[in-house]
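Look at one such:
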Amino acid sequence: MIKGEKVRFDIHNILFSIYKFNKTLNNPSIKKTIGKHKKEDVSLINNVALNSMRLHIHVLKIINIYIKKKLRDHEKILLISAITQIIYLGFKEYAVINCTVEIAKKLKVYHGLINASLKKISSDKLKLRETKITFNDLPIWFKSRADSLTDIQKTNFINNFTQEPSLHLVFKSKDKLENFEEKIIKTSDISGFLADKKNINDIKSFVKGDWWVQDFSSFYPLHNLEIKDKNKKFLDACAAPGGKSFQLLSRKVKLDLNDKNESRIKTIKSNFKRLKFETKIFNDDFISFKENKKYDCIIIDAPCSAIGTIRKNPEIFFKLKGPNFKNLNILQEKMLDKAAKLLNKNGLIIYMVCSFLDNETLIQINNFIAKNREFKVSKFIKNDDQRRYSKLFNKDYMLTLPDIILNYKIDGYFAAFLRKNK
């Protein structure tokens, strides 16, 4: 077997299962495959798999220049991976081509086509690295739901969505940030971007439980939440991966935490142990919650298309099928309705999704307000950082596409505060 062939074969199988069978990199079977490899090969797998998905639209444009016949799925995935490695990752082309041809033989696909095409593409790699895509090249399901975006927003999205995400850290206190041993670009007195790329497990203060990783967009709404009475009862209705719960607990509020996904609950409990937090943790379906217990504030980080996290989750565009918006929208609506029934008078629902599409954001809020006249949208409170981050919100809500602040990358996100008046 050629050196590198085994790991590249596993990369192919991972990409194929994501493309064809709607899996993610966090799927247990894929994690098991990756876990069998030594450390340096795990880095290679993640590097090639993530960038193959991020850049596959660019690569498909390149393929269409050199190959006119309709490709079978295995051929397409092999070419996407190989071209990404040669053109965008700068790997040695002979090693990539030889491995790819051998894998093609094992898969019983047309290896002669693979070999000839990759050699032609390699000879033009400097020119092809400048390949550009337009909004029209994006998946049909996305374009049909993003037609309300302005031309500037569409251009910014095209320029941003393939970039590697930045790492944003949130600290338990101001002192923990001030004593942080690495260089950090502050976004508030308790948060900031990690300036230099580094494995977080190698940072002592992470192991000690001084901070957690949370995207700035997810962090910002609760950072702007005024909590005058610490006796108020809070519920984080779908808490995984836990960042918003950690924010609240670091402010000493009374919090119940829930998530329907059992494996995610295990992850949250592991983080609780590291961070030395304690609270009630439920593993229930929020929509089926009994209504005898009421809350003053309910956070709904609802299941959604996750399109705002496209940099972290490039499989969203890579998969053959787009998100099931019908089911997601129904679920979002039911969660809002349940929260309304569980809320005390003058209580607050904080509705959030890592999406910027109308049907998951403004339309959901407008429909909820129309049905529940006792609620109104509460103005999005801004702290002293409002000038730096003014483009992220208007007076009523926070809404951003994947963007850049302080020269670092943030997710697309939506948040609205819904106040109950009766």
Notes: The radius of gyration is 23 Å. The mean pLDDT is 95. The chain is about 45% helix and 15% strand. Residues 5-21 form the longest helix (17 residues).
